[in-house]
Specification:
This protein is α+β, with helices and mostly antiparallel strands. Helices cover 36% and strands 38% of the residues. The chain folds into two domains: 68 residues, VC0802-like (2-Layer Sandwich); 59 residues, ACT domain (Alpha-Beta Plaits), CATH 3.30.70. The chain has four helices and six strands; from the N terminus they run βαββαβαββα. It has a six-stranded antiparallel sheet.
Length: 132
């Protein structure tokens, strides 16, 4: 599945995530994945959705800044020790330099890199080996 990872800069304050999540809900935008961390007094969100235009509009509407927007692939992975290591090693061995990686809902792995088509090709090989 293709999706979009938005790196969002927001004020570090009570309710900053709630404000964004409520707006996404009002606009019927499903949150496929999310990571939020505080960095030097600022909140940094990685938000995963499938609707690029509507998400960008919702982020702007609440007054937050999109620092980066990246098209990514989202793939199901096994949930057991070593699964991430196996997948990322095979991708690295195929020459893929990942720039974005995190888990999304339903044990799905979010993967981004400079060359998305190369990543998709490498993923097909990883998935074929993993399913044996």
């Amino acid at each position: 599945m293709h999706a979009y990872d938005f790196t969002i800069v927001a004020p570090q304050s009570k309710g900053s995530l709630a404000k964004l999540a409520e707006e996404l809900g009002r606009e019927k935008i499903n949150i496929e994945g999310l990571c939020a961390v505080e960095q030097n007094g600022t909140s940094m969100f990685h938000l995963l959705t499938t609707d690029k235009a509507a998400t960008t509009q919702a982020i702007t509407k609440v007054g937050y800044k999109v620092a980066r927007e990246t098209e990514v692939i989202v793939e199901r992975v096994e949930n057991h020790p070593g699964a991430l290591g196996m997948v990322t090693r095979r991708l690295a061995d195929a020459g893929i330099n990942l720039t974005t990686v995190y888990l999304a809902t339903d044990t799905r792995l979010v993967l981004g890199c400079e060359n998305l088509s190369a990543l998709e090709s490498a993923w097909k090989n990883v998935a074929a080996v993993a399913s044996r």
